[in-house]
Amino acid sequence: MTEGGAAGTTRVAMVMTTIRQRIAGRSLTPGAKLPSVRALAATLKVSTSTVVDAYERLVAEGAILSRPGSGFYVANQTAPFSLSEAGPRLDRAVDPFWVSRQSLEAGDGGLKPGCGWLPASWLPEEGIRRALRSLSRLGMPALAEYGSPLGLPPLRQLIARRAAERGIEASPDQVMLTESGTQAIDLLCRLFLEPGDTVLVDDPCYFNFHALLRAHRARIVSVPYTQSGPDIEAFAQTVAEHRPRLYITNSAIHNPTGAVLSPVTAHRVLKLADQFDLTIIEDDIFADFEYTHAPRLAAFDGLDRVIHIGSFSKTLSASARCGFVVARPEWIEGLTDLKIATSFGGGPLMAELVLNVLSDGSHRKHVEGLRSRLSETMAHVSARLKSIGFTPWLEPQAGMFLWCRLPDGIDAADVAHAALERNVVLAPGNAFSLSQSATSFMRFNVSQTLDPRIFDVLALAMRAAGKVGESRGEEASIEPPLR
Q: Out of 3.20.20.450, 3.40.50.1110, 3.40.50.720, 1.10.10.10, which CATH number does the structure's domain 5-78 have?
């Protein structure tokens, strides 16, 4: 039996959207043959007539071609690659780009408990101003010329010393500066990945990992993250089945959960990485927030299979774009060529600024003050969130994130929409979850959750979301089953 009426039209549109997304995401490339009508109907659980109708409409649009006796093929003139179309649509309104754009565009008047950075007032303003004055006295070569591809030698030496404090032994020649932690991952993806290669991430994980990997046309798989690291049994099964080329993770202060990798889990992850020829990118961007050093995969591994990256955007300034990669010499060699190809020389001004601030005697005291302030704020915000129904998944040892569960029956995306109407930007759980299994979770940045108005808005948004959930449940109970 075929679908009819409005329901049939909706199903035809769904099939067309599915094909458009595959074309936009390059899983269907120009000239590629589309699934047969019968195969796609079985996959999408619709009738064959629905698929035929959708294919004919796509032919009329010029998106695909019909070859009688052969099938349907992607037309050669396809639309430009679209990141927004490449990802899952299950939670589209609050996907990674939604969270990032709302946070970045909120302005000074917006409240941003969902963003991933400290308030400007928490950062070392005087140290930055002193560094800027020092920069103004540099000679013209430093102010006007390209820097070396590896980056400013004194800053690379300082980063190597800081890595050694965490058990990671590397020479300055094994350190390459980048414009950010994100650029570090981008360059590493360019070095290691071909379109279609598989990459493993945590579930949940930092949402921009998803966006960046889609930009590289990678196939993404995930494993659940526990309070001591990735679920090791799921990790073993996934790497054996999918043979990912890379695994991208945080070891110290996991984003968004705040969890810390245990030594036992770290050793088991590295053993599996060796068994299945897996390279690991360890993002250590929150290192300065720690009271005691958590286990680093790069330290246990000796930089054999693990690449260590970081930046200074969280404790110094997001405006001073400067990150780094610490890796094996032969990988640094390949990254250097890629850096020249994509951004030419390094940016010496930002490197000089970061070096100046880090070398300032007041910086260590600033970081110690940040840790104490975050610890106090964490306790305060956690108590306030509990009082209105949010339950922390764990009480983090350090850092700025709380990963909280909402009351039963409330969708975090609905809460985020209701809060945004009141100029409050939240970070609902599914933005961090490849499997879209974090519907009932929300990430809070405690440093950005101190304004009392936020808790009033949260309470109102929770009530509004509860009503939406009830309405959705009522609709589901009366909706006829699909035929």
A: 1.10.10.10
